[in-house]
Design brief:
RNase_P/MRP_POP5, Alpha-Beta Plaits, rRNA processing, 156 residues, two-stranded antiparallel ribbon, globular, 5 helices, nucleus, alpha+beta, Pop5/Rpp14/Rnp2-like, four-stranded antiparallel β-sheet
């Protein structure tokens, strides 16, 4: 049996149009399709064929604007080289910043936890009530935003 190695790319989605305290309406399907289109444009059919098998959006958090993409080891270079060239997700103007490339999802979530804790500390000063703070902490530290149904559809 052959073991396939994966790489998990943690990215931050920056949008100058929407303020930092407002969540993005970001769907992992739109993000996935935009990424495949950009890989097609930059690396052609070979790039898409190499990436398509293992490419999956594992996590999207609209509040902190962080996403995790899983790709196979090797073709993950096509993914990481295409990310800076994505300027639109749907109708939204964005710029993508690669934060971390890890070998396991566990290490990516550890990195995100540190990153989101720093984000949470910076946003707490802007909130007035304790209820708002608790709601923001629950939204920021929620790691269940993986849209598994859409990802299973793209595998078939």
């Amino acid at each position: 049996m052959v073991r396939f190695k994966n790489r998990y790319v943690t990215i931050e989605i920056l949008s100058p149009m929407i303020p930092d305290n407002k969540p993005l309406s970001l769907k992992s399907k739109i993000f996935h399709d935009t990424l495949v289109d950009k890989i097609q444009q930059l690396h052609g059919d070979f790039g898409v064929a190499a990436v398509k098998t293992g490419l999956m959006t594992k996590y999207c958090n609209e509040n902190t604007r962080i996403a995790i993409i899983r790709s196979r080891h090797g073709p993950h270079r096509f993914v990481t080289s295409s990310l800076p060239f994505i300027t639109k997700l749907g109708k939204l103007d964005v710029s993508l910043r690669t934060l971390h490339v890890g070998a396991t999802l566990k290490h990516s979530f550890k990195f995100i936890q540190k990153h989101q804790r720093a984000y949470l500390d910076s946003m707490w000063a802007t909130l007035k009530t304790d209820d708002e703070r608790k709601a923001l902490e629950a939204a920021v530290m929620d790691f269940t935003k993986a849209d598994v149904k859409i990802n299973i559809e793209t595998l078939g």
